[in-house]
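To close the section, here is one more complete example, presented without commentary so you can practise reading it yourself. The ligand is hypoxanthine.
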Amino acid sequence: MSYTRTDYEQAVSIIREHSSLMPDVGLVLGSGLGTLADTLEDRIAIPYEAIPGWPVSTVHGHSGQLVIGKLEGQTVIAQQGRAHFYEGYTMQQVTFPIRVMHFLGVKTVILTNAAGGIDPSFSVGDLMLINDHINFPGLAGHTPLLGPNDETIGARFVGLAQAYDRDLRQLARSIATDDNIPLHEGVYVAVSGPAFETPAEIRMFRTMGANAVGMSTVHEVLVARHAGMRVMACSGITNVAIDAVDSDVETNHEEVLEAGKVIVPRLATILKGVLRGFSA
Ligand code: HPA
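Output:
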């Protein structure tokens, strides 16, 4: 399905009925990372079901609500959980929330996700600032920018050489250094899921230069960059991707959620520092 401007405007007007705050910054909180939105001041929450057109996640660990409030002096709109392509939604549906943020006036989006570590130097609980991506579903034609282009939102052809804002990354790095938080920086490879990768796929991704793997984020980056929004994205490494057959361990969703608890405080420190440090 594809949306029209009316669909975005309808969603915007429902959100405005709940809150008169004008958010500058959009936050997307991935698997197990949603509790960060509970720290917003003066917050109001809107269940996704209340917003027409909004895709609702069916996956445990992705509570679905939009939270609007203040964080470190910035007016923030946070997605507590997100819907995924593997749930059967189209790429247009899973990125509808980013478009709605654009129509709400959001200028900067900070995306977070749970990811498997491909880089052998990564451990569970580490953070990785994304500085580039490999879009496997996108290269195979699953991209939200397919179809007629609305020139009033953005250009037909979107450059991605500087998709992940250099200044925001620099800011995140300086906060991590000040607060002694280990922060890697690298390439996120997007897969459709929902099955985790085979060991052969993990070795292939490593050879290609990917440092972490996950099932979200990059299609949101495309839609955000299409609309000219600034993007920062950070992965929480929730598991170490398995790269050899006959291993005794198997990746599972429970470990992904469990690791979120270690990651949330570190991520919160970095995100708050970034919000303090930039003018939206
Ligand atoms: N693979 C894909 N997506 C993920 C993983 C993984 O290992 N961990 C968390 N999300």
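Once you have examined the tokens, check your reading against these statements. The pocket of hypoxanthine is lined by residues 114-116, 191, 196-197, 213-215, 238-239, 241, 251, 256 (CB under 6 Å). Residues 56 and 83 are 6 Å apart (CA to CA).
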